[in-house]
Amino acid sequence: MTTPTLSSIPRGDQHTDYNTFAGLYPALPTPFDADGAVDHDRLATRARRLADARVDGLVPVGSTGESATLTHDEHVAVVETVVESVDCPVIAGSGSNATHEAVSLSQRAVDAGADALLLISPYYNCPESRGVRDHYTRVADAVDVPCIVYNVPSRTGSNLDPETVATLATHPTIRGYKAASGDAAQISAVIEHTRQETFDVLSGDDAMTHPVVSLGGTGAISVVGNVEPERTREMVERGLAGDLATARAHHHELAPLTRALFRETNPIPVTEAMAIREDTTPRLREPLSRATPGTRDRLQAVLSALDEAAEPTPGVGGA
């Protein structure tokens, strides 16, 4: 029997019939216009392009989507635009370091049509493990869609340890873990400790996607997937199918792009890369600034190399 995934279930039934998060879920950058407002037309175009590339879902308004500098109304409007633009699942970022705000944002994201939620450990105030556990539980109790907890110590200043994750995995609404610690041993322990639950581990670090899938993870919430969705999807699919040699080849093929996209704070480089591909002006919200000339040059070189590699060899194939 084939295990249903979030993307294989009709929207509206996903939160009740869900079994697993599996595959590629690009974390969407939020585009802005010349006046600094959210560019909803460009956002919709990007979302449709990724859906056409057969990604398994989209993740708006996370850290890649500059959620920290969006108002709550803008946050919800971005979710609405993405939901209205695609048929694939939408996993909305709805985290905050204030539990009551995270509850409110999560409920509003669900009302806007989100099929699942990406939460984050409280940042800056850095509660102890019991406070982090209670924060996630409080938010998950307030909604009826699947929730993914997110461990990114570089942004939160705290680590979501495997024991706490194992406890959270018993909650009926907490169904996944986004791993961005860079610690393969810890990620392996999370997978080991949650195997008996309906719970999935997704890579949240593009350099670790292939290793995480090899360890038993089920996919990735990816920045690289915005720029190279087909190649990234193929890497994840091959890994999940057990074809590790092909997945590893894609991992190495994408490695120069992965490094280029994290030369500076995310989403600075990916915003630049998207602008190169779309021939537009990259725009971010302060305090983020445009990529340096060195990063722009590196991205241009890497993207040109990938484009050349994708072109058919003259005289090979065809009539």
Give a quick rundown of the structure.
This protein is α/β, with parallel strands linked by helices. It has a single domain, classed as Aldolase class I (TIM Barrel, Alpha-Beta Barrel), CATH 3.20.20.
If you had to describe this structure to a student in words, what would you say it looks like?
The chain has 14 helices and seven strands. The chain is an alpha/beta fold and 319 residues long. It has one domain: TIM Barrel (Alpha-Beta Barrel), CATH 3.20.20. A seven-stranded parallel sheet has the order 1-7-6-5-4-3-2. α9 (209-215) packs parallel to α11 (229-240). Residues 14-18 have low confidence and may be disordered.
Question: What topology does this entry show?
Answer:
Blueprint: H1 14-17, E1 23-26, H2 40-52, H3 72-85, E2 91-93, H4 99-111, E3 116-118, H5 129-141, E4 147-151, H6 153-156, H7 162-168, E5 174-179, H8 184-193, E6 200-203, H9 209-215, E7 219-222, H10 224-227, H11 229-240, H12 244-261, H13 268-278, H14 293-310
